[in-house]
Amino acid sequence: MDKFKIIDKGNVCTPKGFRASGVNGGIKKNNTTKKDVALIVSDKPSRAAGTYTLNRYAAAPVTVTKEYIKDGILQAVVVNSGNANACTGEKGYLDAKQMAAITAQNLNLKEQDVAVASTGVIGVNLDMEVMGKAIIKAASSLSYEGGHDAAEAIMTTDTCSKEIAIEVDINGTPVKIGGMAKGSGMIHPNMATMLCFVTTDAFIDQKLMHTALKEIIDDTFNMVTVDGDTSTNDMAVVLANGMAGNKEIRDIDDNYKKFYDGLYYVLEALSIMIAKDGEGASKLFTVNVLNCTTKKDAKKIAKSVIQSSLVKTAIFGEDANWGRIIAAVGYSEAQFDETKVDIYLKSGSMSIKVAENGAGLVFDEVMAKEILSKRQVEAVIDMKDGTNSATAWGCDLTYDYVKINADYRS
Question: What terms describe the molecular function in GO for this protein (predicted)?
Fold first, then answer.
């Protein structure tokens, strides 16, 4: 925490030279009030990096953004919620390009410098007449105070916006990193997850920034699951406009490490916000795997447990069913000594050991239930077989998850 300062009510407009907006454009079905189109714009061209879904049915906006970011430069991002523009064929691809073109025309930018993202219902074509008017409205609403509006405009089933900003000292120069994300359901990342947009006024080499993003994504967004479904629209994009005025970060040195740690904090915080706001969730569930032989195996185990429907329902039911946890450890395909595994359940300062050396213990069921009744619950799995660890974030599986997704298109 002493490495950087968390900025109160910070967002994507906290770094120098970024404006944003979020407006109601009529994209969402039967919606006349909720914001559904967002813009983020830098005052100057920015170095850019991105990661994207590995779903074979990647949405049209993902395809277009991957094409436009190839030169490592972007200046704006246009996003709509309410319609994923996924599985929409050639028309969907042309519509995504048109979103970029309309944005560029209204902001006097190059079309290729505009990233495009969408989220919502799959398989429905955009109404480009409505979309065009919405983008014009968003462009006319841009402001250096518009970050929160933008964060609200990208929400679908999210119950709250997800945004954060920090300040890092880079060789005596204050550098800011701001981020926003959306994600509540269809969360099981295979690159990033959901939608995430990060802005920074850091002056940093584009390739170094891309390397940092990919590495951090693996330990943050790729360690989140809500329901085991990988979206067609997942995207995480970082824009760095260099307006902080720091000396360019060009090498893997102390300044790079400070930027890396700051970006890590932002993405980890957004990851936790997504897990906490999982569709229908009543609890944030964290799995910490300790003392594993390899980092790869630690991640396998953490993700296996966090995505287990049986574990998730046990957490919801406040049932200390450690057998479900150890079963998920067992089928994770990680290599470990099954006679060494200890399991603890924790919440805040409360902790109880429920399994030791791969076998159950007699434990206080009342205390265990009290721990599981808390809003934030943690399972600690000590492999006692190495020095590597991993953390995964998720939530419980509730009745409300089914209700939300049973009528999602309604």
Answer: L-glutamate N-acetyltransferase activity; L-glutamate N-acetyltransferase activity, acting on acetyl-L-ornithine as donor
